[in-house]
Design a protein that fits this description.
By secondary structure, the protein is of the alpha/beta class. Helix content is about 40%, strand content about 15%. It has seven helices and seven strands. The strands form two sheets. A five-stranded mixed β-sheet has the order 4-3-5-6-7. Strands 1-2 form a two-stranded antiparallel sheet.
Length: about 200
């Protein structure tokens, strides 16, 4: 792609480094931004800088937040005795969109995947085990994507939690096997949460 401006080419390179954005799409976006006023561009740029500087990870569950504790963990109307274990923040957004779940979350930060060099030590598992042993938790829901890696992680977590005084459940298999949880439609995800079942080996 022959771009007659180094500045535009640099902007295209930066945008196309984002997942799902190719060079042609990036060029179309850059040319659209070029037509905006300097104030609009400054505001646009500032929003990303402020996001990077001010967004925190909740110290309790690992969700994104503007504060030390996220809005879900700090909400007294949520049921803090039920923990829904998810792979990453996108899964929280998907579940919250169903408006079917009233407990809290625990973000693992990934799933066990030997092929990618990700083992249990790389995930946020120790704090989940500590929460389950605290006596304040009655149920832990495994809400990981129904893939081989997700099932491997479920199995590992079950082994870690099975001696704790809690009920361990998993999403109903209404979520298709082999699909990413974040891409499940809201109705399917909602039914899977409502009809969750005990986790079995």
């Amino acid at each position: 792609m022959n771009i007659p401006s180094k500045h535009i080419e640099n902007a295209v390179e930066q945008l196309s480094s984002l997942p799902g954005i190719g060079k042609r799409t990036a060029l179309r976006l850059v040319l659209q931004l070029l037509n905006r006023s300097e104030d609009e561009i400054e505001q646009f740029s500032r929003s990303f800088i402020e996001m990077k500087q001010n967004t925190k990870m909740c110290s309790s569950c690992g969700n994104i937040s503007d504060h030390e504790i996220c809005s879900i963990c700090s909400n007294e109307r949520r049921d803090h005795s039920i923990i829904c274990v998810v792979e990453d923040i996108r899964d929280i957004l998907a579940i919250e969109a169903t408006e079917s779940y009233k407990g809290i979350y625990h973000v693992l930060g990934g799933i066990i995947s030997p092929m990618d060099g990700i083992g249990p030590a790389d995930l946020n598992i120790a704090t989940l085990v500590a929460k389950a042993a605290s006596g304040n938790v009655t149920e832990v829901i495994f809400a990981l994507s129904p893939t081989m890696e997700g099932d491997t992680t479920n199995f590992y977590l079950y082994k870690k939690l099975s001696d704790k005084p809690i009920v361990i459940t998993t999403l109903s298999r209404g979520v298709a096997i082999g699909t990413e949880l974040q891409y499940a439609d809201e109705m399917t995800l909602s039914r899977s949460l409502i009809k969750r079942q005990p986790f079995q080996l």
